[in-house]
Backbone:
């Protein structure tokens, strides 16, 4: 069975601070995909990134960066110079073969509050 | 282009009633999946449809059902509503069956907020 753990329930930072959201996953499969989604108050889940189990390269997209470490089964997400618009709930998710990317196992989410 | 559209956005139902939620995928998308989000259970996969056929199903009782039409629009139905069915129901669409070996990106709608009283 798959499991995704986001131990941080809620994080509060002041604007311009850097913040890291942790994600630890469990799976026995060797082929899997990891995702991060952002959920603003409107409810929509916004896709941020997808990473497969064979690609451990870290990725940077603007102020966002992701650190994937298979050795510790972690896929952490860092926001640099946070902004108020980053306030949302962030979900880490896992999908394994056989299966479809639509059958995601989500973590419980981390609520990020960025204040001025 | 228009995103995933879900209707209604908010609704209140009474225990024992049934409810139908609708989802219009992004134009051209053929795969639609549904998720339930509750404070206690988090985000849970309900089912996925592709070409009018259910391709995947989560661990929900038979009271939860869905279907997909030839234009890829999808509906989900919950019969004999229980208080615990109060949740945000999210629909997502993708171009093809979202096999994880593909480069498919899954787009979510804003959801339908269901309150059962």
Residues:
């Amino acid at each position: 069975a798959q499991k995704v753990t986001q131990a941080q329930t809620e994080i509060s930072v002041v604007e311009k601070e850097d913040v890291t959201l942790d994600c630890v996953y469990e799976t026995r499969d060797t082929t899997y995909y990891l995702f991060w989604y952002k959920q603003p108050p409107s409810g929509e889940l916004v896709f941020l990134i997808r990473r497969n189990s064979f690609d451990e390269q870290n990725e940077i997209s603007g102020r966002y960066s992701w650190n994937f470490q298979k050795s510790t089964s972690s896929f952490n997400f860092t926001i640099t110079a946070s902004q108020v618009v980053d306030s949302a709930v962030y979900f880490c998710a896992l999908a394994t073969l056989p299966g479809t990317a639509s059958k995601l196992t989500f973590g419980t989410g981390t609520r990020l509050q960025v204040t001025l | 282009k228009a995103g995933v559209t879900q209707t209604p956005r908010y609704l209140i139902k009474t225990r024992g009633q049934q409810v139908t939620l609708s989802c219009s995928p992004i134009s051209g998308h053929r795969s639609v999946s549904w998720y339930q989000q509750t404070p206690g259970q988090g985000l849970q996969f309900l089912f996925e449809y592709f070409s009018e056929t259910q391709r995947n199903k989560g661990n929900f009782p038979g009271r939860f059902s869905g279907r997909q039409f030839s234009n890829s629009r999808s509906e989900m139905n919950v019969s004999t509503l229980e208080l615990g069915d109060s949740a945000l129901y999210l629909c997502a669409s993708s171009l093809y069956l979202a096999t994880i070996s593909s480069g498919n990106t899954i787009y979510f709608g804003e959801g339908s907020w269901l309150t059962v009283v």
In short: Chain B touches chain A at residues 3, 31, 33, 42-45, 48, 55-56, 58, 88, 90, 92, 94, 97-102, 104-111, 113 (CB under 8 Å). The first strand of chain B starts at residue 5 and ends at 7. The mean pLDDT of chain B is 91. DSSP finds no helices and eleven strands in chain B.
